[in-house]
């Protein structure tokens, strides 16, 4: 199992790296394994880890293709049943014609 490492004043977020540590129910997630992939694929993969993914729409200025995951966000240690935010470019069309 893996545990999310905490920053040591380096300015990096606690979700940027993972380190191995024993513990029941702990889940290791490396953002780089998910960012850039299709949101549906990422959600399925996170569910297989017994996490609870919640999709959030990326900001309007975020570059990327529709359905692409641009970030993952969580707080503290990830354990089975933990919520994890999946930020993705929306799949919808461009909206109504002007």
Write the layout of secondary structure elements.
Blueprint: E1 2-4, E2 18-20, H1 39-48, E3 52-57, E4 69-73, E5 83-88
Label this structure with key terms.
single chain, 98 residues, alpha+beta, three-stranded mixed beta sheet, two-stranded antiparallel sheet, elongated
Description:
The protein has 98 residues and is an alpha+beta fold. 10% of the residues lie in helices and 23% in strands. It has one helix at residues 39-48, and strands at residues 2-4, 18-20, 52-57, 69-73, 83-88. The protein has a 3-stranded mixed sheet, covered by helices on one side. Strands 1-2 form a two-stranded antiparallel ribbon. The N and C termini lie far apart (52 Å). The model is unreliable at 1-22 (pLDDT under 50).
Describe the structure concisely for a colleague.
The protein has 98 residues and is of the alpha+beta class. The protein contains one helix and five strands; from the N terminus they run ββαβββ.
First-residue to last-residue Cα separation: 52 Å
Computed structural class = alpha+beta
| Shape call | elongated
Overall helicity: 10-25%
Total strands: 5
- The strand line-up of the biggest sheet is 3-5-4
Order of helices and strands: EEHEEE
Mean pLDDT: 79
The share of residues in extended strands comes to 15-25%
Largest sheet: 3 strands, mixed
Uncertain runs: 1-22
Oligomer: single chain
Radius of gyration: 15 Å
Number of helices: 1
